[in-house]
Amino acid sequence: MYPERLDSIIIDWFLAALKAGQHLDDLPLIFGPLQPSTAAMGMRLLMEQVQRDHQGSSYSVINTITQGADGAVDILKLNHDDRRVYIMGLISTIIGLMRIYTPIIHLAGIDDEEIDDLNENDRHHVALVAAANRGRIADMKRLIDLGADVNFDRKKSWLGPPFHAAAIGGQEAAIQLLLDCGVDPKVACTENQDTALHFAASAGHESIVRLLLSLGVEPDVQNSDKETPLLSAAAAGHVNITKLLLAQNTDVNVVDATGRTPLLWAAWRSREGVARELLERKDINADCTDSEIEGMNMTALAVAALAGCEGIFNLLLSRPDVNIHATDSDDHTILKHAAVGGNEAIVKTMLDLPDVDINAQAEDGMTSLMWAAKVGNEPVVRLLLAQKNINVNLTADQQLTALTMAMASENLEVFKAVLQHKDTDVNVQFEESEELEGASTLGWAASVGNVDMASLLLEHPDIDPELPDMLGRTPLARAAIRGHIEIVRLLLALDDVSVNSGDYRNETPLIHATVQGYEEVVRVLLDAPQIQVVLGNVGGQTALTAAAALGHDVIARMLLEPNRGFGKDAIQESLDFARQRGHKEIQHFLKSHLE
């Protein structure tokens, strides 16, 4: 498959997910300060849409790009290749200014804020923005001579000042030209109060950062999201720029609108080099926490554990001012975050520390082992299970255990690991709720049709294959209700499984399978030596009356050919049901058995 085609497929899926109402705000692609990979994705997305909308677009962002490039070509008498350069300049500027979230929700048609299309009077100004981003000095001079505004920055627009576009594009010569034209290097854009220093720091343009600092641009200036250039550089992973800005006596503990500091962003994004520079500052708060705005009051150590970044984790762990026993707002421990992060070395390190409680439970009762099982991390699960003091049977909300979480992960190796532990209770039952119905582990496997897990459970010497749920339904009944024939066969092969067990309404697996119309399940049940076909529920209705009432003529024939004990009265009752429901084929069939 060509890369361009793959781009199209991914972008279509992404936009379709947004349009369908899926919340993607917490994705690294969407959330937080811009980083190089995010910018690259945003640029590919916009370029893909530009290429699709050849004859005009319903999206103002695409119209801004195409009309802006067309205007530049027209004004400057450029060729087709130059048009693409200007398209890229506008795309780069839009992603740098707006980041990726606003263009994406606009393309998905779910944005609330109206952003205006370009008008004819903007053509020269927009062309200057694109030229500045691409460093087209000769074009810039001509556009300025033709009246382009070097300070162009209109509210409710996809674009900002040419000076900021040059900073985003890393064009030092363009910046110098605009400075010569009297542009104030300290100016903030109207949209988000970012300065050129924010953009240069975020994009990784060290020489421009140095130039702007030499011009007196405030290194600690905050935009409307409370981000400083230092925070932008740290989040984007630019080590040299981080070091340069730290030397300006900037606030190393600045907190942005999401409640995160530069160190927290470095930990979340595994920026080890950045973290190392930040931790060199004597005034850094190495035990800083996410705020409740977007986080869970997780410390930087917890974040590094969750991100699986061993380098940052060890840097923080070596400091005396870091609390290894800190918990977040839900009482999750650092060991839990390490278990979810999946870095086995970090988990080992935590287990070797003094007074770390391997069985600590959060507010919802979840343990580190349960979480490792839930996310399907086999090496970490086995490591935790190997600890002498592990309690494998602790329960969380809804009576969840490590074994049930392993089942939910659908990771067979993780399930095996927990199942094989000598202390595991294999007959644990879920909460008696409408959703979980108090099912046993085997009952749950039977309901979802997981043959592999059901087989492993049945091999365990302690398994109770008849353990009913809160409705009195055995694993066999639960498998019959869902039509999982392989599990029905597995259970019927056991000597201690009753094919005739009734639930709270005395409905047998045969009645359940008949009601659902599962013909093959009915056939297998009828082959069981101990089957009692004529058993009825509390209302006296049998599998035959259910088949007649619901129009399952094939099942009715299986029940009566050969006749497995139904008398004339039972057949007549079934015929009455068939008449009431208008099932003519079954009526004819049942009449023939009354003659």
TrEMBL record:
Q: Which UniProt keywords apply?
A: ANK repeat, Repeat
InterPro entries recorded: Ankyrin_rpt (IPR002110), Ankyrin_rpt-contain_sf (IPR036770)
User: Where is the signal peptide, in residue numbers?
Assistant: none
Q: Which residues form a coiled coil?
A: none
- Record's keyword annotation contains Cell division: no
- One of the record's GO cellular component terms: cytoplasm
The reply on keyword Repeat is yes
Q: Where are the ANK repeats?
A: 192-224, 225-257, 471-492
Q: What is this protein called?
A: Uncharacterized protein
The organism is Polytolypa hystricis (strain UAMH7299)
